[in-house]
Amino acid sequence: HPSTTDLQAQDAAHHMHPFTDEAALAQKGARVIVKGEGVWLTDSDGRRMLDGMSGLWCVNIGHCRAELAEVAAAQMRDLAFSNTFFQTSHPPAIALAAKLAELAPGNLNHVFYSSSGSEANDTNIRLVRHYWACRGKPQKQVIISRKNAYHGSTVGSASLGGMAAMHAQGALPIPGIARIGQPHWYREGGNMTPEDFGKARARELEEAIHRIGPDSVAAFIAEPVQGAGGVIIPPDSYWPEITAICEAHDLLLIVDEVITGFGRTGNWFGSQTFDLKPDIMTIAKGLSSGYMPIGGSMISDEIADVVGQAGDFAHGYTYSGHPVAAAVALANLEILETENLIPRVRNHIGPYLGRTWEGLEDHPLVGRAETCGLMAALALTPDKARRAAFAADEGVVGEICRDRAFANDLVMRHVGDRMIIAPPLTITEEEVDELIRRACKALDETHAILRQ
Ligand code: PLP
Questions:
Q1: Which ipTM value was assigned to this complex?
Q2: Pocket perturbation via mutation, ligand 1, pick of 115, 143, 150 by most ligand atoms within 8 A of CB
Q3: Cα gap 189→123, rounded to integer Å
Q4: Pfam families, from UniProt (predicted)?
Q5: Which helix (H) or strand (E) element contains residue 214?
Q6: pTM of the model
Q7: How far is the CA of 18 from the centre of ligand 1 (A)?
Q8: Using the 8-state DSSP alphabet, how is residue 46 labeled?
Q9: Tens digits of per-residue pLDDT, 173-187?
């Protein structure tokens, strides 16, 4: 490949990056990744980095498994593209749909394919509104989501999400979206116990339903554990209360499993970890371990029946059920299954990460260390007793720590002043130890910078 300097110059000249301060990046130059293997990435200067984020929470089986490359090549030779519109289908889309129906919780026996989580959530907005219209309740339109939720970047999915910075650009949200708070006890729980706070946050859903009018609310959407919002693991009291409120007011429950699906929390789906009964489930990322772009909406028998009986659902993407993406996703599910990667997260490597990660609470900057399966967060604070925020703008310290981790060849993410990891499910104990060592070094260096 060309030299790092040439790559960086061309990148700065022609490539606009997602969620990136381009001016700052142009000064620094992008770190150009040329290779992956397991939990490791290699950059264009030959430096190896430990990928603590599985790319963007997606490379569940680890980087660059040759089996998937072979499946993709074989499928491209057989049938590189065929659509699933009108009255056609093809074996990879069919086999994957059947497998997903087998794995999904409850009666989510139908999949509507997309190429991403954003597109799948756009499908969900149209689907739930259309469903209620088919049921003779066209006024049931409003979807309630949560503050700081990330459900994607298209106009629909970004509207569904609760990120203020996204709404500030491009005149979002679209009409018919409402929002409640997030169950973020560490920062927002005040003097309440986590359990009381979890219940109080769930009851905001009931208050919102009364405010909007129960006849106007179509659905509630949430992640089992909010990911990009900061790995917010809800108190135990939260989900039972939410579930009861959805049932009492005839709301559909859309569970966004884009991050929590495919083993991340120690079960196939976070819905199983938290005992949820979704009517619709959003999937993407770990579905193919990021090897191909593919996502979808898993849909209940009831919704599929009602919508199916009503004629055309006028919706679809050229790449819905793309044959190569579907074949690769199916092979990825087989690897997760045959290598027992998910029970391994639940019973072995998840608890191992939990124990070692908790040790970071001894660090002077860390107020709380939390894990759920192989997703983990550290709440940074200048005052552990008060769970206080830093005096500087939220996120400044987190960004310093993220940069120190990067300089120590660990990919770690920050959400405000929370430090996040979600490594591949294949990570070994030795690699967890190495990850913790590098995270600790990043924390020490951040602490030193703050004291200067
Ligand atoms: N939903 C959740 C919970 C996500 O974390 C993401 C992406 O990070 C999305 C949806 C959007 O998925 P995509 O980036 O594939 O469009």
A1: 0.99
A2: 150
A3: 34
A4: Aminotran_3 (PF00202)
A5: none
A6: 0.98
A7: 13
A8: S
A9: 999 999 999 999 999
